Amino acid sequence: MALNFPNQSRSFDPGRQSVRFTGYDGVFEISIFVQVDLLKTMTAKPLSDETLSLAAFDGVRDAVERQARKAYSRRRGATLILTAADIK
Questions:
Q1: Which is a Pfam family this sequence falls into (predicted)?
Q2: How much of the chain is in helix, strand and coil states, percent to nearest 5?
Q3: Across-strand partners of 24?
């Protein structure tokens, strides 16, 4: 099955310096972490706190979801961490 995103919630993970959101592959829940450095690259904005990171994620969410699908098709698992290497 393809990865889909019916739930629009997201949260900031300060320990990972990432925004976390959830995708689903059928009944399987996939935790996806988008590193803040990747969001900085995608938005060309400084992201100094949680609020700015979440706002940046919201602005590029469609692109992040597309990249998550591509990355997940290459490396399936219960957790997916998106980095700058995933955006080509």
A1: DUF1488
A2: 40, 30, 30
A3: 4, 29
- 13-45 residue pLDDT tens: 999 999 999 999 999 999 999 999 999 999 988
Taken in order of first residue, the domains within the chain and their CATH numbers are: 10-86 (3.30.160.140)
Burial string for 3-34 (b: 16+ CB within 10 Å, else e) reads bebeeeebebbeeeebbbbebeeeeeebebbb
Whole-model pTM? 0.92
Residues 6+ apart with CB under 8 A from 86: 38, 67, 70, 71
Amino acid at 24: Y
